[in-house]
Design a protein that fits this description.
- By secondary structure, the chain is α/β, with parallel strands linked by helices.
- It has a single domain, classed as P-loop containing nucleotide triphosphate hydrolases (Rossmann fold, 3-Layer(aba) Sandwich).
- Helices cover 31% and strands 29% of the residues.
- The chain is built from six helices and six strands.
- A six-stranded mixed sheet has the order 2-3-1-4-5-6, with helices on both faces.
- The longest helix is centred in the C-terminal third of the chain and has 12 residues.
- The radius of gyration is 15 Å and the shape is globular.
- The chain starts with a strand and ends with a helix.
Amino acid sequence: MSTVSKKICLIGDFSVGKTSLIRRFVEGVFSEKYLTTIGTKISRKVVNLKPSSKEIDLIIWDIEGRTKFKSIVPNYIKGATGAIIVGDLSRQETLDHLPAHIELFFQTNPKGVAIVALNKSDIIEKHKLTKLLELNNFGSNSQIIKTIVTSAKNNTNVDRAFTELAENMVDS
């Protein structure tokens, strides 16, 4: 079985849960302690894609969300095949910034694909989730695979987000 390596980035405002999603996916853990990412942090995980029996080695770049040097961000995301673009369902301003993050990723990686993760669903009432998902659905962009509601804390759709992204990148 051959393994292909692909760079992906997690992009979004500060404190939306990018690091928590990565830690849940890679290490299977969640921590209430908030750790600010400075610059980037790189993690790896090999994903077995079924039923194709292909493996993909995800090189996961956790991009800081609060940078004084926004002009540096394209350098971090350059060369990525995919991205998970994360917003915090409990903070509207982070959802409002999703289009700018999406635009930046595709300007830098025009052949890339992305998933939008609406994170922290564990702290939002169910009836509000449906409305927020409707308002923040980016399905009209063919490079966005889908918008997924996630929770790193409850492990809701975390593996699904990474795996679906990997499945859509394996042949690219």
